[in-house]
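Co-fold these.
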Amino acid sequence: MNISGHDFIMGMSAIGAGIAMISGLGTGIGQGGAAGAAAAAVGRNPGAKSAVTSTMLLGQAVAETTGLYGFAVAIILLFVKPLG
Amino acid sequence: MTFVSASEDAEFMIKFLEDHKFFGSIVHFTTTHVAMLIVTLTVIVLAVCANIAIRRELKRQKAGIYQKPGAFLNVIELAVEFLDNMVVGNMGKHAKTYRNYILSIFVFVILCNISGIFGLRAPTADYGVTLCLGLGTFILIHASGIRKNKLGHFGALFQPIFLLFPINVISEVATPMSLSLRLFGNIMAGTVMMGLWYGLMPIFAKIGIPAFLHMYLDLFSGVIQTYVFCMLSMTFIEDKIHDEE
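Predicted complex below.
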């Protein structure tokens, strides 16, 4: 099997995109923690449900940022092909 | 050996429809422009219809005829009341200055995000669109900061000590970047998922199942991201103009 330099770079880009998506791990843990804490807060004080929900969404959105940076890197590696 | 080629079977990237020469550089007319034109026309038609309905209702009330409002007027009232409560709940007494901007951004972005279920390629899955929205918020943040604090607005960059100036500048510049990347990333992820599903799945998986995917990726995620975009815009603006005492 013949692998040219271009093919090698494309394959490595795909591996790099896969590795970049590991950033989703931290995002998932963070968002899950926020949702769990919000559920506990609503259980303790059901009257504050709407305030807790909007605060949770805001926190989750900020926690999502790093995961989206990883996603942007993966998309750039796969489709913009900056390396070759 | 045969590979599934994602770039040929699955279609989710921006397509160039027409090329134009413009001052020596080539300007592409893309699917984003088409979808955005459709969304803008929808917003305009919706606004004109709402305006006509409200004027008619006011004229009726002035003439002394009180009857229950129609379905369209009810929906408009519901939407405006929800958005208004959102702005007032976040910005308090500053709400009257910013409610127009937040409401227009909300309506535009929500229609852009859910245009995926109408067969368009969502305009917010193009970084050029979301960056402009983020820059709009960026300009508004600093314009209101300068209007409130005059030159003291830039003095805040040297807080708490002089040495932190570079870090403060970076955090200010990162605001529109993270705002726009968040919206772009979420909607792009939905677009990629739908493109892969429609492109690579066997035919029997394309019947019925995509409805649920559309519901989550286009509707749910789109609405949540719109809400988050507006909430974060309001939070950043409020951060610059809130009273110290």
